[in-house]
Amino acid sequence: MDTRERLVATMGELMWERGYADTSPRDVRERAGVGQGSQYHHFRSKRDLALAALERNVADLLPATSDLDGAGDPMARIEAYLLRPRDALKGCKVGRMTQDPQVREDPVLLAPVAEAFAQVHDRWVSVLREAIAAGVLRQDLDPGRLAHTLMAVIQGGYVLAIAQQDPGPFRDARDGVLELLRASATGADDPRPNTDERQ
After folding, report:
1. Is the torsion defined by CA of 80, 81, 82, 86 positive or negative?
2. 137 bridge partner residues
3. pTM (2 decimals)?
4. Which CATH entry fits the domain spanning 3-183: 1.10.10.10, 1.10.274.10, 1.20.1250.20, 1.10.357.10?
5. pLDDT for the residue 197
6. Which Pfam families does the record associate with it (predicted)?
7. pLDDT band for position 63 (50/70/90)?
């Protein structure tokens, strides 16, 4: 990894851990093992470095949604994406930036974050439309609204887990939305044996 890539990767990690406001150029140099001259050779300002790091974090995020693409059963792809391993206590590299006031108030820094979520939303809409067209999910569901709901559950699950320093709320939110999706599946109201011993 060359010096520029090391700076970008380090800035991305520090922004994920601390946010943009609480990450200084010195912090980046020390962790990356890069001198001040080298840093300013590649990036004129902290903002320039942050933009490159945000773009890198977005590039890391989007391949993870590839579970939603491809062939085969759309519900299986949805479940695979929701159940993929995540570090709930670290949260989302990209979603974390929406909580940073200096990123929110800077249209240039916010742009790659907004674009990333727009692309993820498009992928969700596409797979949900497939599921509806295949008769797997009910025809009366709105794929755009449902896509935002699923994205909000994931991002909100991270917030709850981090607030409580417990991955349990994230897992509960994820498993809860999976239960709702399965309940919305065609044929979901077929009678099933009651296995709840409390009833």
Report:
1. positive
2. 185
3. 0.84
4. 1.10.357.10
5. 38
6. TetR_C_13, TetR_N
7. confident
